[in-house]
Amino acid sequence: MTAELVRGQNHPLSQARLEIRVSAGTPVVAAATLGDENGRAQSVEWVAHPGAPVLPGLEVSRQAAANHRLAVDLDAMPAAVHRVNVLLALPMGVGGPVSFGSAAVPFVAVTGLDGTEVATYTITSLDAESAVVALELYRRQGAWKVRAVGQGYAGGLAELLGDQGLPQAHQLATTINDAVVEGLARSVPAPPPRTPEGDRSRQTATSALGPDQSGSPYGTQGGATGPYPAGAPGTQGAGGPYAGTQGAGSPYSGSQGAAGCPDGTSPTDPSATQPASPAAPASGGPIDYSHPRRQNGAPPPPPPTAPPAQPGQPARPVAGDATGWSMEERLYNQVWGMFEDLARSTAAYRSAVDFADTRLERELDQVLSDPRSRIGGQGDAAREAAQAKHVQLVDQAREALERDLAQLTAEADVVEPALPVAYARWDNPAWHAYRVPMEMPMALRLGDLQLPESDPLRIPMLVRLPLERGLWIDSGRTAASDGSFVDSHELRHLAMESAVAHTARLLAVHPADEFTVHVIDPAGSGAQALAPLVRTGVLATPPTAGAAGVADVLARLTQRVDLVQMAVRGGAADSLPPGFDTSQQLLLVNDFPHGFDDRAVNQLRYLADEGPAVGVHLMMVADREDSSAYGPLLDPLWRGLLRLTPVPEDHLADPWVGHAWTYEPPLVPHGSQVLEQVLAQVAAARAKYR
Amino acid sequence: MTKGQAISLQKNDGGSLTAVRMGLGWQAAPRRGLFGSRTREIDLDASAVLFADKQPVDVVFFRHLVSDDGSVRHTGDNLVGGVGQGGDDEAILVDLGRIPVHIDQIVFTVNSFTGQTFQEVQNAFCRLVDETNGQELARYTLAGGGAYTAQIMAKVHRVGAGWNMTALGTPANGRTFQDLMPAILPAL
């Protein structure tokens, strides 16, 4: 659990080796002073700052940056040290903001070496101060604790250091600022991203700049694990859990110009990977209007924006070029923006072609009905002219569509690799670097969408989580759009496989303890497809078979929905029975209505209607024909579910123009073990949690 | 800009405009009398009708805020006017580069949805702004005082590879753009 500290609050530290992460909207100096039992720094050797970054057990970065990672090893601290103050200061004389009041609110987090946050603190209510003591790590009865301090100094670093008991405070402040200015002159313009993944992809980018960057100021940011060799693939694994995410060997970081981070928490500044482009505008406006607690850790860094385009050329697309608080939200909005643009561009094209067709028809009719056209070649000439006009207009429309498609395809090429796992295709390398997440993502990819005109461009179909309505994987005979004949048995199997892939994805993108899956497979016909779920042990209980089992599962979930609804309506969410499992529930039903009696059918309908609001979701694998005996009674159930197909089919409409989009299910690449690997990790994390 | 006057939307430097905004602003006329401070709400609506070869293809108005192709967008219905006090109360944004190739004219109209005539509207204007730099290209003041409820303001039409704007200023009567169709057609 992360403790969100408020000013003055303290929190125990159970680990000795820690990282302190700092995020600010603007480059800041991060330093640390050591204090004796009276809290005083005994000499300038007790200060770790950019000019002297390493002290026993403590390492700070050599220069000012918007994001820092300070390495701390409390066990290595000399016995005389009782206190470690973490300071932030604005560098002077570099044209940045002169007080924290005009910069974005700084955020600090104490994390373990594996990146898990122990305590965080958002330093609000700073105004004219240009230096601040952010945190204090202190010994109390042999154990270390952290306290949120947030003491600002309008007189800057000199006043702050003077307050620590250093007589040479002014001199030291000047030394620090000189070191920072020098560091800024050496460095690439952009601040380093906050998380390790970003850090690594950045390392690749900086090393691509040239060997003279080897003395890069970021070299010290590796923390206790030591500096990362710039751009060396061997850095993967050095820092723990993030190893294998978009590391130095990432295929995207160099070539695509926008190495996104798969977990979506940290945007990569475009100028880092596009050294030739002018620096991105300085981050952070003069006033930060953001709610400090409504942020995902850090004040939102400026979104990556496309570099200025060459005149007459469309701007080069960049992943995350949309609004949002986090990279995840930006990518979500960007994907929806692409979806809308494609829908509208296609509407323009179709409307132009329709118009050309009607005009041609009308003109041909006129030619036919005009008696003069029967004489000589007049009729033929008019007909040819009409045809030519038609061809010309269609060509123009096609040209406009091609232009838009080229732009969208270029955008998809940078966006797709940057997507976090929840948005990524199964063949995205992000899935091979999968780790069980700490938070539920914003949305989930249910498949791909495309229009006949736009082939081969695919738009990810992202739906918000938690799901607002159930899913229905239609195992019935459909007009498969590729025309190939899929027999009924095979279709049922495909539908079940597709349902399992959706379920696995849902399991994978939720934190280990926050998603529970129940399976009803009355006749056991889905056993083969369900094998990956059963084998890895990610299900709450083995698939339920037989009518009694169906009744039992439905009764339990119905009761659950009822309980939670009562608690919510009564405003007494804490009066749920002790040990109540608060995770989201997914009920996967195969072969409906096999094994269902009338009572069970009603319960299922109740779950479909009332469940989503209280975290009980439904996924049906069914052929509507099988339940035709119920007549139109079940029509509302089917209409209430989001219908997906196991084979590509054009049945989904966009919300703007209403084109029929071809839905393609997200298929795990043939022969790939990625699903099993991911499920194995999920299972391991769940086992650990219990 | 006066009735019938046409201006080219080519920029002076030879480049053509890529995005223009048709802005509409008005203030309700205060009623004199016992309750003089009470102003009556007047709801003017701006609409844009997209024509291909003199046939209406699409329309952007308060019930259909974005043309299907996304090139023409209405900023939303304003029911009372006077919000901007000189700024635009309703605006229609036109992305000229994205207009489908077969659309050759866009006609902008203003209707009084609440039925007051323009006699009761103050300071009503319609203007065309270069959306890329905010520069006003043309401004047309609704010659107030007429006893009619609608006006066909202007049309933007293709000329060669670029676009021209012609001020129309034709008075008409009607509640929404549909009622104006007979009045629009002669202007095409």
Automatic annotation (TrEMBL), chain A:
Ranges of compositional bias, category Pro residues: 298-311
Pfam families noted in UniProt: TerD (PF02342)
Gene3D superfamilies referenced in this protein's UniProt entry, alphabetically: P-loop containing nucleotide triphosphate hydrolases, sav2460 like domains
InterPro entries for the chain: P-loop_NTPase, Stress/Tellurium_Resist, TerD
Coiled coil feature spans: 383-411
Keywords for this protein: Coiled coil
Compositionally skewed regions (Low complexity) per UniProt: 265-283
Family annotation (CDD domains): TerD_like
Region of interest (Disordered), residue spans: 186-321
Domain TerD, chain residue ranges per copy: 65-161
Protein family (similarity comment): Belongs to the CAPAB/TerDEXZ family.
Name of the protein described by the UniProt record: Export associated protein
Lineage of producing organism: Bacteria, Bacillati, Actinomycetota, Actinomycetes, Kitasatosporales
